[in-house]
Amino acid sequence: MLVPRRYDDRERSQEDAVTKNARSDERIVAGDHQFRIGGKVEELYAGAVHYWRLERDKWSDILDKVRSLGFTAISIYMPWEIHEIERGKFDFGSIDPRKDLDAFLTLAESKGLKIVARPGPQINSELTWFGYPLRILADPELQAQNAQGGRTVLTQVPRPIPAVSYAVDKFFDETALWYDAIMPILSRHQYPAGGLISAQVDNEMAFFFNINAYASDFCPASIKRFRAFLEGKYGSIAGLNVVYGKKYASFADVDAPRSFSATARTDLPAYVDWIEYRERYLIDSMKRLADMMRARGLDRIPLFHNYPHPLGPGGAASGITAPYNLMGLEEVLDFVGFDIYSRKELYEHVKTVTSYVVGSSRFPYIPEFIAGVWPWYLHPGDDKDEAFVTRAAMMHGIKGFSRYMLVERDRWLASPIRRDGRVRPENAAVFSSTNKVLKELDFKSLRRQADVLLLANRDYDRLEAASVLISYPGDFLESQISLSEYPNFMTTSEETFGFEEPVQAVKNDWFAAFYESLSKGGQTFLLSDTALPAERLPRYKAVLLSSFEFLGAAVQKKLLDYVEAGGTVVVGPKLPSLNERFASDTTLLDAANAAKSSAVSVVNRKAATRYAVGKGALVVVHDIADVEAVLGVALAGTGIVPVRKNHPKLDVTIHRDPAVNGKAVVFVANPTAQPIAADIGIGAPVSKVSEVWDAKPVVVTETGWKDDFAPYTIKTYFVEA
Length: 721
Prior knowledge:
Layout: H1 7-10, H2 14-22, E1 28-31, E2 34-37, E3 40-42, E4 45-48, H3 59-68, E5 73-77, H4 80-83, E6 84-86, E7 89-90, H5 101-110, E8 114-118, H6 134-138, E9 153-154, E10 161-162, H7 169-188, E11 196-200, H8 220-234, H9 237-244, H10 268-295, E12 303-307, H11 313-316, H12 326-329, E13 335-338, H13 347-360, E14 365-370, H14 383-395, E15 400-404, H15 425-440, E16 447-448, E17 452-456, H16 458-466, H17 503-521, E18 525-529, E19 542-547, H18 553-564, E20 568-573, H19 587-593, E21 596-602, E22 605-613, E23 616-621, H20 627-634, E24 644-645, E25 651-656, E26 663-670, E27 676-681, E28 688-691, E29 699-700, E30 705-709, E31 713-720
Parallel strand pairs: 4-5, 4-15, 5-8, 8-11, 11-12, 12-13, 14-15, 17-18, 17-19, 19-20, 20-23
Antiparallel strand pairs: 1-2, 2-3, 6-7, 9-10, 16-25, 21-22, 22-23, 24-27, 25-26, 26-31, 27-30, 28-31, 29-30
Helix pairs in contact: 7-10, 8-10, 10-16, 14-15, 16-17, 17-20
């Protein structure tokens, strides 16, 4: 039996791993929206295949079918739950030949398939125990706790399970047993010796879908880490007392908030700190697992993580932040993506999530991209939905993906390849045609054109998350009772806390107003949030975000530097006078007061104020009803040329190859249930336009082209000047 090692004995910092990789001539780098192997930009179009769920004599034929659909890689879950016989003992094929991971990897390599490994420890995969051995879930020391001190539970099919605490050291000691067993196998297949080119750290870590701030994790180890987080943030208990307005003797006296009961602005920091800690909890636990993987030899390939898709009232608006912190997690991992399971009617959801990943991640990747569906999915789509959602993700700039599930198995329906190797023609055609077009367009080398960046405001999202008034466990079936695990206007406080408006509620209205106005006006834009590094802002000609009485000090400084260097920032409804701790901070306000101002008029009345700050402009929209009109004026002087479209519901994106002038790939979407006769222009003359998918004739005009769109249709055009 293997003896578990303490994680601390095996720790290796990310910086050391990066340095070692830098010395190699055969590096794999995920960055700048490209996946490079040995300096060459490569495709990462993968499909999920679970060797342990398939008969071994079917492996070869199934992998051949995967190749025949144009896939260049496979993505593989490797479940601790399946391989462990008893604590510290594992079967990798000596007992059950389906579990021979080494043989499966070797077979995939022999067929020229690259490999993306997903060894957990949590994998979900519709397994009853989420990939953990049952003993892990059954151990009270390893269970996360709710605010009342009971077990945090995930209500899922086929049965509820306890949530595991990633704050407990013992959990990492147990995981070390699994990693000690599997990492030597994976490291032998690591590029350049083998086909393994990337690995996922854990899976959809979101407190086991207990997104609600007061549902998890209140176990003693987590509270201890929360207090350490506060000490690191404030430096001393005296510093915390100043912000909290308390008289704690030490950090040991501070408890996490168990429910929201704030009545005044001075109460808020204690709640918002808990939300920020929950973000850090996820980041620190993923870093700890990643370092364990690197220390056990998996140190030559990029490591990534997948957040679960944020569906629902919070996810479809700007609630794509807390408890997720994509930029924070990419400080310790190579890239981070969101999973997408959607239907054609949810185009705006796909656009929002995809645009956010493209605007935020080093390498825009969908780790799980719908192919078939789990049996308990409500209102599942069909192959037409999968085709539409696939084109929508491409349209908004995704550069890599793994189709989940490419090969069918138990607890899954309608995959393109059956578990016996037979192919479903309609489903398979969606993916084979997609892969063919991606290769023909050399899509991996194209860059999404985006002149404007719309930022979700993390300060306000944290307040929204903190001010939720009801607490319930994570639940796969919440949509059946019209609830969402994400905070929203139905579940959050309506208190103003001394502000003019309840920021936690109206911030979504402003985000939506900016988003809808940009879409309607034909602006090319992406999404991110206020944690985006300052050096990435100059890529855009304008930056938009909501702004109320308070805004983080670092965010204010970042925006001011961007404006002074020549950028345009549009905010609404006001400039802040406080920082995120609600102390005085007039960085932006002082810059505006010292600058020359002018009115932005709409219908002969003042709708906004423009401040000439440095080489750029700071524009404040005073009323949400004027956002669309003000943007039309404020962005007109920035050199931005919007696309032209004759119907407000049409959506257009442009992709260009930096190495080729005068050519573009343009996506046009009709995301409605009605047909549209479209007239499109991209702000420049065109001489030739050809549709990529169906090769049907296109009517070219002096300023663009015309085409007919059936309901829920996305077309792709190759356009030449």
